[in-house]
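Before the break, one more example. Copy the sequence into your notebook; we will annotate it together after we see the structure.
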Amino acid sequence: MIKDRKSSARTTREAADWLDRLDTPPHETEELEAFSAWRADPENRAEYERLEDIKRAMATMRDDPDMREAAAEALQRGVTRRKRYSPLARRPRWLVGGLVAACLVATIGAFALRMPTYSTRVGETFSATLEDGSHVQLNTDSAVRVRYSAGQRRIELLRGQALFQVAHNAQRPFIVSAGNTQVRALGTRFDVRKIGDDVRVVLVQGSVEVSDPAVRPAPWRLKAGQSLALPRTASGATTPTTVDTPSATSWTTGNLTFQGVPLSEAVAELNRYSRDKIVLAPGVPADRLVTGVFPAGEQGDFIAAVSSIFDLKSVRKSNGDLELQPQGPTSG
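Here is what the structure looks like once it is written out:
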């Protein structure tokens, strides 16, 4: 047991050291190779990512109103404690400052624990049950930060896509923010996607209220089976549209469903699930429509289908990407 604790402490120290070293570029090739070798150990990798999450949470909490209020309370507790116990007032200033700093650290630590971050890498999915019984399912290359308080349940979609199954609680609204867009629900099931500055909301069940003050002052109210797309160029004329929800959320079952989607859009969607990308060469009919169901993260079936339909061939590039090219004229 003591050996395990020592090993865990050593891993934490090493992870903290790497986090600090990599935060100050430039980096030599040998250093990056050493980090890659160290991070190959699953325990090292998990601890490094845990410290990364804490660091990100600390950075985002600097300007957070709740954090500022909690920090002020922690400072006040330190001042009150110093006044209450007169011997403390005669102790060295550095000791008093240390006690106040300890209050701040404890407060920040409590906030970090209340703000878990869940994330996935390219090609991964992840599901979690939150403290209130709500469920969140993350798609490929996605991240959310959970911020629950007594009065509301707030989740920030940092990137990617997530499906939410919300436990009903009228006294604690469930709010998902994605950039400037907010989705408010009481008890429902909906999908939110954030790629860059573009946001899309798909309502599977129940009702939600979507607001984006940068687009228009009044919120949109969606019904089950509706979708609202808010691209960065969105205007107040943006309106909800009817959508096939099983197709829009098919990623939760490991598939991608396309119904009359331009080839270029289908390729862009499939590329989200793989580090090796599909590239359309000049001359490929990028606006031709694609319909079909394909496994997410597996390019073979998709490439075989579109190559047959549109008379294409695939060529593996030196960087691992697959380029779809028009078939050359056959010689007689």
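The first helix runs from residue 2 to 22. Confidence is low (pLDDT under 50) at residues 81-113. Try to locate both features in your own notes.
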